[in-house]
Amino acid sequence: MAGEAMKSGNDMTVVRGLDLVRYMGRWYELASVPSFFQPRDGRNTRATYTLQEDGATVHVLNETWSKGKRDAIEGSAYKADPNSDEAKLKVKFYVPPVLPIIPVVGDYWVLYVDDDYQVALVGEPRRKFLWILCRKTSIDEEVYNELLEKAKAEGYDVSKLHKTPQDDPPPEADAAPTDSKGVWWFKSLFGK
């Protein structure tokens, strides 16, 4: 990004007036900037969001498949500022999965969602993490490239994005053994 001025986190364009009800459901990760807490060989990565009875808290279920096993972690999301119309959320997970006692909180900013709530671009103010999400396991290359351009405009280095392999049809949660011991999380601490 030589020669370009970097926007600060406060200058990022964030969706305003996000319809949480329409945003709920399953989203497939089509690409992401890899993070330490995800298995390096993860595929079929997806998130399922469910609005809780209070109408403000979202139950989060993140799943991925690694070495033939389903890895999952559950958490919650909520608006960072309940009085703002910006789609700036906080997500909270408890780790390690085997004995969830340590809360880990991160930013989840919806930078773009299309009018039909079928594709989304999600990031955070430090630009360390970025996700391209879709309701389906694949996306038109033209739409994918438009999302890349939107990410670039927000100051992201899109060369760090890695496409996430997705099977079509996607696996069912009970179709593979589950890593119930949280081994994947401990391995992630060592970059595996």
TrEMBL record:
Coiled coil: none
One GO CC term on file: cytoplasm
One biological process term in Gene Ontology: lipid metabolic process
Domain of life: Eukaryota
Any Pfam family the entry gives: Lipocalin_2
InterPro entries with a match to the protein in the record: Calycin, Lipocalin_ApoD, Lipocalin_Blc-like_dom, Lipocalin_CS, Lipocln_cytosolic_FA-bd_dom
Family: Belongs to the calycin superfamily. Lipocalin family.
Protein's name according to its UniProt entry: Lipocalin/cytosolic fatty-acid binding domain-containing protein
Taxonomic source organism: Eragrostis curvula (weeping love grass)
